[in-house]
Write a structure and sequence with these properties.
The chain is α/β, with parallel strands linked by helices. 35% of the residues lie in helices and 21% in strands. The chain has one domain: 3-Layer(aba) Sandwich (Rossmann fold). Strands 3, 4, 5, 6, 7, 8, 9 and 10 form an 8-stranded mixed sheet that branches. Strands 1-2 form a two-stranded antiparallel ribbon. It is globular.
Length: 224
């Protein structure tokens, strides 16, 4: 699949270019440690890991260094981000990160090329895509997991119909003002997609800055 550019609202993501071709996102430095901690608590210390929408590449290199027992496959839809990920990998000298791959996880059937993962991590994507695309991503994650695997979805979510803070409400409005098809989804809706795809959901985990981590496990054996 050819690389393509994501046309996201100006408020969606902050990434600063570096002289060495590595993009820098301040939020990545803030949330990587707590994401690592949550991975250790729910997905163990080793296995194969797929990161959807790896962005700048900072997450995957920090996590690969902190969790060397995992073999990481970073992905993104944006060609500039793919280049940044490759440069972060090169700079980190991590041996447990595969070359970044182009992936549009909103495309039905994407999981046919990505399967058997012990861990699938996705950070800050669902509020930037439409509802149909978001459901495709979540359903694909369930299919892409190995039996016994863990899905972890991090980001800002509605609590039912309510925002966690005034800041979240303002951010959501800035998104829909520029693209009415996107914006916050309720965590209950996303967990419903996970459950209907055969995953066993855990209670939503409160994370920094009013974000949530939605953890779900694929049964080691089919549910009867």
């Amino acid at each position: 699949m050819a690389a393509k550019k994501l046309n996201l609202p100006d408020t969606a993501s902050v990434a600063h270019p570096g002289a060495d071709g590595r993009l820098h996102a301040p939020s990545a430095n803030r949330n990587a440690p707590v994401i690592r901690k949550t991975i250790l608590e729910h997905a163990g210390i080793s296995g194969t890991a797929l990161e959807i929408a790896s962005g700048t590449g900072e997450h995957v290199t920090m996590l690969a260094q902190a969790l060397p027992g995992f073999s990481w496959q970073p992905t993104d839809i944006d060609s500039d981000r793919i280049m940044s990920i490759a440069n972060w990998i090169r700079h980190s000298e991590c041996k447990n990160i595969l070359s970044p791959a182009i992936l549009d996880a909103t495309r039905a059937g994407w999981e046919k090329e990505y399967s058997g993962y012990d861990l699938i991590l996705m950070v800050n994507l669902l509020h930037l895509i439409d509802t149909d695309g978001a459901s495709v991503v979540v359903e694909g994650i369930a299919k892409s997991l190995a039996p016994g695997g863990t899905a972890m979805i991090y980001g800002p979510f509605l609590r039912g119909d309510d925002f966690a803070s005034r800041g979240d409400e303002v951010f959501h409005k800035s998104l829909v003002d520029q693209n009415s098809a996107i914006g916050y989804k309720s965590f209950q809706t996303v967990q419903g997609w996970q459950a209907s795809s055969g995953l066993m959901t855990k209670p939503a985990i409160t994370m920094p800055a009013n974000n949530l981590m939605l953890v779900a496990h694929k049964p080691a054996r089919p549910l009867t």
